[in-house]
Amino acid sequence: MSARGDLENVLNRYSIAYDQNDMAEMADTFADSAVLTMRIGGGDLIGPFEGKEAVMKLMTDSLASQSDQRRHVTTNLAVRKETADSASVESYLTLISIQDGKAVLLSTALYQDELVKEADGAWRFTKRHIELDLPY
User: In Å, how far from its chain's centre is CA 117?
Assistant: First the structure.
């Protein structure tokens, strides 16, 4: 039985939590040992940010630097590998900024994620790589 719905839910919980500044909800999408990396517009690798605390500091600092309302739209989810307690998933991000009565496309990206099903039954990110197409 596929966990696709559960996996998609984790990705969507992450996006909505970021957009609503719900850092407790976002933290719950990451395993304690999670690692996050990113690359912006083909530049140098940023990170790794190792451990949930480091990942959440990056997210909190990023959100604090923004004056607009962001919408992270996650689509085209493809499960690349799945076992009973682990999965590799790729998906697209469309990042939209809402400010001054306008919605503006900031960037698009490819998410490359590895998730595990933990002892409490919840799926969480163990690795997340964000390959942004454009700087924002």
Answer: 17
pLDDT digits over 43-83, tens only? Answer: 999 999 999 999 999 999 999 999 999 999 999 999 999 99
Question: What's residue 1's pLDDT?
Answer: 61
Other Cβ atoms less than 10 A from the Cβ of 109: the count is 23
Query: Domain extents for the chain?
Result: 4-132
Q: Which residues contact 62 (CB under 8 A, 6 or more apart)?
A: none
Sheet order of strands, 69-82 included? 45-50, 30-40, 123-132, 102-117, 86-99, 69-82
Q: Is 15 exposed, middle or buried (0-12, 13-18, 19+ CB in 10 A)?
A: buried
The highest-level CATH class for domain 4-132 is alpha beta
